[in-house]
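User: Here's a chain of 171 residues. Predict its fold as tokens.
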Amino acid sequence: MTDKSTIAVQGNYVAILPDGHSLPVAVLQSQKTATLFFLLAQMPAVAAPSTIAGGAGASTASPATKETFTPVTFAPTTGPNAPVLGSAIITLAGTDSTTVNQGIIKKINTDASSSPTSYVTSIDPLQTLIGSPLFDLSGNIIGLQTFSLMGNVFYPIALIQSVIPALNGGK
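Assistant: Prediction complete.
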């Protein structure tokens, strides 16, 4: 996912994995008025194993390797492990290299039902970029910085999670 200000919807994009491999991605628009867009990795087709005929027997060639991912885990939105005031957090940012920034949650803005609508952090706004993820110290994602929430304010992952079923065809 990314802030819509960081991409051109008609552009061509690739995801670069930590091992250097790259995969083309398609841009999925969550809503016409949304500030977030989701990117879908185009997984390469995996060749089926083939049998190589031989004199005394046949051997099976190994199938093509398949890309695997460790998905990000979402921080809980309720309960004892949910983000609270004073929770230690980190962000990742950088254009040429990755920078880790640390801080705490200074304020949690909520709606009428007390659900978080944004997290204000102590992290210097000059140290983050649009699209920077916000993590708890267990590595769970808490939020994402969007253009509409400049600086040290992050959009809660719970709001992002609410649109994922629609992107997955209701699943």
